[in-house]
Amino acid sequence: MTIQARIGEITERITRRSHDERSRYLDRIDAAGEAAAKMPRKGLGCANQAHAFAGCAPADKALLHGGRAPNIGIVTAYNDMLSAHQPYERFPELIREAARAAGGTAQVAGGVPAMCDGVTQGETGMELSLFSRDVIALGTAVALSHQTFDAAVYLGICDKIVPGLVMGALSFGHLPAVFIPAGPMTSGLPNEDKAKIRQLHAEGKVGREALLEAEAKAYHGPGTCTFYGTANTNQMLMEIMGLHLPGVSFINPNTPLRDAVTREATRRALEITALGNDYTPIGRVLDERAFVNGIVGLHATGGSTNHTIHLVAMAAVAGIRLTWDDFAALAEITPLLARIYPNGRADVNHFHAAGGMGLLIRELLEAGLLHEDVRTIHGHGLRGYLTEPGLAEDGRVIWRDGPARSGDPAILRGVAEPFQATGGLRVLDGNIGRAVIKTSAVAAERHVIEAPARVFHSQEALQAAFKAGQLTGDFIAVVRFQGPKANGMPELHKLMPPLGVLQDRGQRVALVTDGRLSGASGKVPSAIHVTPEAADGGWIARIRDGDIIRVDAVQGHLQALVDAAEWQAREPVQADLAASHVGIGRELFSAFRASVGRADAGAAIFG
């Protein structure tokens, strides 16, 4: 298929902007690849090798001793506290067995932390969430630093975990990388019903016991949460960017097909090492075209706003400079093709059944909205992702053509009849700074809100004002000092029930914050990731109670309607952030807060 001219122009712009950094990155990983080829494992010192395989099974030890068979490093984010990651407990042995059957070996190279944002929402631990991404990247680098692997497979799904694993993998860009998902839990209490119970609880109309019962029915077993938040957006990205096998993102855990595709992913990882004829290093897979494909997928599915930060940070490790302007330009030409909660009633299981990733990619390819001629771990360009896996009688994976049309147009549609003509994200600019707004779940009549500011320095302060009945009339809640330098940029998901209640009562409300929101947030218009942040002297720190604020997702404006001379003369408000810098491990992250970059640069501690 011919790529649309505008897609080509945006890709070329990114390529030109990134040329010098990308060239240096490619030179570095090419040199690392050449060095590894000249000095494979047997070139390591004898003591080094002996340490590396001392604990292996005898047959594996023999292969590693010979130094000729490929060896996979497993980097795992397994723990049994995350429902999404609990199925990974079985994966290392599945992978080792599959590697042996294919004539190779596999070892757990290391584990990385995996925190659950669902557990920490509204709690102190959420202030470590974003920084955990960079810790995961560092942990991945440590795991691979033994230099005894010919490829790596990555076991991770959730919010900061996949971006962190990708960043760490790209730092070893000469190694092939295969990401292996575990799949979503089966459908439970519908997400819309869960959201209603949350709002009723916020209003004091149902008690904690009813709320807990509803939450337990929604999050009820092993697997990823079924709404289309950051975790499931991660899975979409890994597939459309070529790091998953085709069609594997949303197969439920602990099923014969899930185990079969895990074994197939292992076999494929062994095939694409430098020891074979299909060498596919991750640093070459994730190029400018792959990132453009990822952003198009993000817009087409109404994915998580967190990826306006994560994709920028991931690309930077590969020497690619993405900007929010790239997101905005691609949103203008990408239609919204999926309705998955919070953008609709369906969950990811319904999306998968309606045609899933194969149909989505088919539609975008046919419309010229994706680069087809990319490298992928599957080895057939992006057109190879129009297939989906099935089980043969002997338990092996067979590839078959994916669906040519949607099984449910209320969930997944073609480009000819999109849910809306443009993607669900918009970049806002104005005298308050730059921000991101997700419009795909916001009613059209709420895309522009102009109202007086009500200023808060924590989500707890807003919740207290709500419970006291003080949030009357139309207003824009300004919740500041929530950026990465201030307190690690937590998600402010607990703002949504009270603001949703007020909106449902007929008030015109919106949110402006330098913090983040969950990928599951939806119907309240929210200008988030405001940068520069308040703690960095950003203009959001100059807003006063009563200032008229305009959030305009149609024209892309974020404006304080204050006299220009007065606005310039105002001093930014300061805040005492000491309480956010100690306890629950936060004192260990002072170096992160001091060195972290701006949200629009990826909010990373690197570079």
UniProtKB/TrEMBL annotation:
PROSITE patterns: ILVD_EDD_1, ILVD_EDD_2. Its EC number is 4.2.1.12. GO terms for cellular component: cytosol. Gene3D superfamilies: IlvD/EDD C-terminal domain-like. Residues 70-382 form the Dihydroxy-acid/6-phosphogluconate dehydratase N-terminal domain. It holds the Pfam family ILVD_EDD_N. It comes from the Bacteria. The keyword 4Fe-4S applies. One of its GO terms (biological process) is D-gluconate metabolic process. One of its GO terms (molecular function) is metal ion binding. InterPro entries: 6-phosphgluc_deHydtase, Dihydro-acid_dehy_C, DiOHA_6PGluconate_deHydtase_CS, ILV_EDD_C, ILV_EDD_N, IlvD/EDD_N. [4Fe-4S] cluster binds at residues 158, 225. Binds 1 [4Fe-4S] cluster. Pathway: Carbohydrate metabolism; Entner-Doudoroff pathway. It catalyses: 6-phospho-D-gluconate = 2-dehydro-3-deoxy-6-phospho-D-gluconate + H2O. Its cofactor is [4Fe-4S] cluster. The keyword Metal-binding applies. Keywords: 4Fe-4S, Carbohydrate metabolism, Gluconate utilization, Iron, Iron-sulfur, Lyase, Metal-binding. Residues 411-603 form the Dihydroxy-acid/6-phosphogluconate dehydratase C-terminal domain. Belongs to the IlvD/Edd family. Catalyzes the dehydration of 6-phospho-D-gluconate to 2-dehydro-3-deoxy-6-phospho-D-gluconate. This is Phosphogluconate dehydratase. It comes from Rhodovastum atsumiense.
